[in-house]
UniProtKB/TrEMBL annotation, chains A, B:
Native organism: Faecalibaculum rodentium
UniProt key word Zinc: no
Protein name, UniProt field: FCD domain-containing protein
Stored InterPro entries: GntR_C, TF_FadR/GntR_C, Tscrpt_reg_HTH_GntR, WH-like_DNA-bd_sf, WH_DNA-bd_sf
Residue ranges of every copy of the HTH gntR-type domain listed in the record: 5-73
Coiled coil location: none
Length: 230, 230
């Protein structure tokens, strides 16, 4: 068993190579176990071990009876920063917001520079989707995170689009930063960001994002008094 | 088996709670399986399953015969951004550098504001360590990544210190950005950052980090001609 491991690791690398070479996308189906056995020139047990290890890394998804697919999770782990090791706290929520303030205004700037027409359309659609949920007083955290993810994708930066979900859909957001009085502000700021990206106005996109995040931040901290606190 | 899973998940949550409540650090030893069975009021199999799942998330480390410990990996997964799904390329290396340019100058700024005397000492020591390796013409990538991680820790921001390793010790750095002609520049810039942090001079820390990263970036891209390219 001990000397099987490097073999399974090499098989996993082989599968990753296959995914990259064939430019496979989430949801695409992998060759069958038997085909992989031939492609990688290893035994069935090794293929199974390799597939298991890639599934545990959220790269593959094994659907019983249907086959093995590229996971929608895109290889991104649940809680990849290991934040669940830290106690949930106001400090953690503020720390996360400070990280978002470092990266998301620059991301909005780059999004306005590089967004394709299709990306702009997807962003505007998502903006409307969040808006509707907020106006209907429904939970909107997930759709909100997707809005921010789409802005990341508009940058065309491969790392950014994978980084944004880490700081928006994070466990620490269980701290409630979406109290009622911030909902209207979120509608306004989202719309400003989306429209600035749509008309390729990077400065405004950045400013709107800074404003959005600072309003959210002021909902966690008492260190600034804003008109919203009246 | 299907309805065992929520139980094991709750047991895993219980272990996380225990870790947080007792403020455990990497390397600390967890209670024995039997103690956990009593603490969590579940069966041995459930405890084992919970420990397994936390080990696969790099939160725990099971050392045969010695017990279960909090992992040094701090819950951070190998390749947490799923970048191994993307082909290695110049674009990926530039994208990563652009993300570093978004966050690391601000991190250097905050490090200079908040570093404790102990953190400053650790940073200066690590600076010397990298310097020695570079001067001896030895591989220094890992110690270099640790230097940048220590700057992240100087900020006191819990998210930052977990985020920096993701962008410095990443798989994409297999693209060689540490060619000879950048080694001397790295020595100079690192020293400038470390000294600015040491004297709590945030503006200079930020400028030195911007310079450092732009010099590295110019080693990947041809879009700027610098005196170094002569």
């Amino acid at each position: 068993m001990a000397n099987r491991k490097p073999l399974a690791q090499r098989a996993a690398e082989g599968i990753l190579d296959y995914i990259r070479t064939n430019d496979m996308k989430p949801g695409d189906r992998l060759p069958t176990e038997q085909e992989l056995t031939q492609l990688l020139e290893v035994g069935r047990g090794t293929v199974r071990e390799a597939v298991q290890s890639l599934a545990s890394r959220n790269i593959l998804e094994v659907r019983q009876g249907a086959g093995t697919f590229l996971s929608d999770k895109n290889g991104i782990m649940e809680d990849p920063l290991g934040l669940s090791l830290e106690p949930e706290s106001q400090k953690m929520a503020l720390d996360m917001m400070d990280v978002r303030l470092m990266i998301e205004p620059e991301i909005a700037f780059k999004a306005a520079l590089h967004a394709t027409p299709e990306q702009v359309q997807a962003l505007l659609d998502q903006c409307s989707r969040v808006e509707k949920l907020i106006k209907a007083n429904k939970p909107y955290r997930e759709e909100d995170a997707l809005f921010h993810k789409l802005i990341g994708e508009c940058t065309g930066n491969l790392v950014v689009s994978r980084l944004v979900p880490l700081v928006t859909s994070s466990v620490v957001l269980n701290v409630d930063v979406t109290r009622d009085r911030y909902r209207d502000q979120t509608v306004i700021c989202h719309r400003q960001v989306a429209q600035a990206v749509a008309r390729h106005d990077p400065e405004t996109a950045r400013r709107a994002m800074i404003m959005h995040l600072h309003i959210l931040r002021s909902g966690i901290s008492d260190d600034m008094t804003t008109p919203l606190n009246d």
